[in-house]
Design a protein that fits this description.
408 residues, mainly alpha, Arc Repressor Mutant, subunit A, 3-stranded antiparallel beta sheet, two-stranded antiparallel sheet, 64% helix
């Protein structure tokens, strides 16, 4: 295909072939894509440039022009459509596009937003703007971009968009160091923005600032966990593992459970096998439980029974008993946990007890009791790892759907 060899006039004519149902017999409700602004945006040129090229096309009868009311506007504007002479002029180009299996729409968009061509024609400052659109984890509002950049990227509503293929091309052209600087700049812009803590974490990692990313994740884990996607697993994979890094490994376990990522849980448990701090051992017990290594989970938990991690360890033991033991073993573990909770009165552990009771009632087909325990858990939880999951389980229990997993 002839791609970059097309003239601006050829591109205008190709654009107009998409609207051949509109003619000078239509004075109302004509799309804005047929006025000078719309044509300029469609082929990546300014309105004055579009006006100049349209005048040249009028002189050779390849387009016609008339005044019409634009859809959604009270005013009439000059609008354009392609003529028979115009169609004849680009018939070979249309045929060549059709032979490739592409539509004119797809072809025009490909050359309209071609990264290589755009990169060459924009200034260095405009390249920085394009880079921001490429790497930002949230859509960039068009009001923060120059007019030239807006014409060079796709706009959907108030936001600028770049396809994944185009992003990859831009980042390849820019080079790794420049892409890191783009990410680093956005990370700096997000300092202090709790609502965007996860996005800042991603930009710090992509900017090569791993130490700062780790500090952010540990110091603001609640903010990160309120708003993350499955990309968090890659972030955790890229952060170095240390068996005694209790805070970070605890976060890894929480996120792995939320994402149901058994591979990450296994990596954490393997890393922590030789750890000694009590918090690490408790995290390890939970990790073993999540990957169904119940004997190891029970063994590690029992080691913690005479420490200040007594109650959390009993919660893990109760879960192991309920999932892998006999009914009597589960009943005994729950009774033991209840006695210990009554002695210490820790509210956060009491929430988990509600959750365990719900599971215990469920496996005994006591659905009403199970639902009531889950509702107690949800009421007491506020923000807790299993809260949203529990809300979903309540409806499932009401319908008595089997096979529900209480533990992610």
């Amino acid at each position: 295909m002839r791609d970059q060899k097309l003239t601006v006039q050829d591109k205008i004519l190709l654009h107009l072939t998409r609207y051949m149902s509109y003619t000078s017999a239509d004075p109302f409700n004509v799309p804005s894509a047929l006025n000078q602004d719309g044509i300029g945006d469609a082929v990546g040129i300014s309105r004055p440039h579009a006006s100049l090229e349209l005048k040249r096309l009028l002189r050779v009868d390849r387009v016609e022009c008339w005044r019409a009311h634009i859809k959604g506007s009270k005013h009439s504007r000059l609008v354009y459509s392609i003529t028979e002479e115009g169609l004849e002029h680009i018939s070979d180009i249309v045929g060549e596009i059709s032979s490739t299996g592409w539509s004119v729409d797809r072809y025009l968009e490909a050359i309209r937003y071609d990264p290589q061509e755009t990169w060459l024609k924009v200034s260095d400052d405009e390249r920085e703007e394009i880079g921001r659109v490429c790497v930002s984890k949230v859509p960039i509002h068009v009001t923060s971009l120059s007019r030239n950049v807006i014409r060079s990227v796709k706009v959907e509503g108030p936001h600028a968009l770049i396809s994944d293929d185009a992003k990859e091309a831009y980042m390849l052209i820019a080079g790794r160091d420049r892409v890191k600087r783009w990410n680093s700049k956005i990370a700096d812009d997000l300092v202090g923005n709790e609502e965007r803590a996860y996005h800042r974490l991603c930009h710090l990692m992509d900017g090569g600032r791993v130490t700062e990313a780790r500090s952010l994740l540990v110091a603001h884990s609640n903010a990160v966990l309120r708003d993350y996607d499955r990309g968090i697993v890659k972030v955790l994979d890229d952060l170095p593992f240390k068996e005694d890094d209790t805070s970070l490994n605890g976060i890894r376990v929480s996120i792995a459970m939320e994402c149901k990522n058994s591979r990450l849980l296994k990596d954490v448990s393997d890393c922590m096998e030789g750890s000694n701090p009590l918090e690490s051992r408790l995290t390890l017990a939970e990790a073993f439980f999540q990957i169904a290594r119940y004997d190891r989970s029970r063994q590690v938990s029992e080691e913690l029974l005479k420490t200040d991690k007594d109650v959390p360890a009993r919660i893990v033991l109760a879960k192991v008993a309920l999932v892998s033991g006999s009914r009597q073993e589960g009943k005994d573990a729950m009774a033991d946990l209840r006695r210990r909770l009554e002695a210490c009165g820790d509210a956060s552990d009491l929430r988990e007890f509600h959750y365990l009771r719900a599971f215990n009632h469920y496996i005994q087909s006591e659905y009403a009791f199970s639902k009531a325990c889950l509702e107690s858990y949800v009421t007491a939880s506020g923000y807790a790892p299993n809260r949203e999951f529990a809300l979903g389980l309540i409806d499932g229990i009401k319908e008595r759907r089997m096979g529900l997993r209480f533990f992610k």
